[in-house]
Write a structure and sequence with these properties.
Elements (H helix, E strand, L loop, with lengths): L2 H10 L7 E2 H7 L5 H9 L12 E2 L15 H12 L4 E2 L2 E2 L2 H4 L9
Parallel strand pairs: 1-2
Antiparallel strand pairs: 3-4
Helix pairs in contact: 2-3
């Protein structure tokens, strides 16, 4: 299985109403290639069915969506997360620890 396939497999394991981080995906894949993970996710041909909108930055901010870091795409990411019950305060995920989805080696 390629790293790309593994990334997309992990994305499908993030339940609605939960988020994970680029760093957590990299950790699960035993790599520190956070930016590479972001590049793979950016090219998700099946968004939002394969829920890349549920991947955020480690500081609780949204990060990018569809290759953009601001504007309509990021607003769409926020809207999708809000529809799943994710709450925001000052452009950060509220109760981040409670909505965080960690991975284990068994998830791959």
């Amino acid at each position: 299985m390629t790293i790309r396939q593994k990334v997309f497999l992990l994305l499908t394991k993030i339940p609605p109403g939960k988020v994970t981080t680029y760093k957590e995906i990299a950790r699960a894949l035993n790599t520190k290639a956070y930016q590479a993970i972001g590049q793979i996710i950016k090219k998700n041909p099946n968004a939002p069915t394969v829920p890349c909108h549920r991947v955020i930055k480690s500081d609780g901010t949204l990060g990018g969506y569809g290759g953009k870091t601001k504007g309509e795409k990021v607003l769409l990411k926020k809207k999708l997360l809000k529809q799943e019950g994710i709450k925001f305060r000052n452009n950060k995920i509220q109760n981040f620890e409670q909505v965080f989805c960690p991975f284990s080696p068994a998830d791959i």
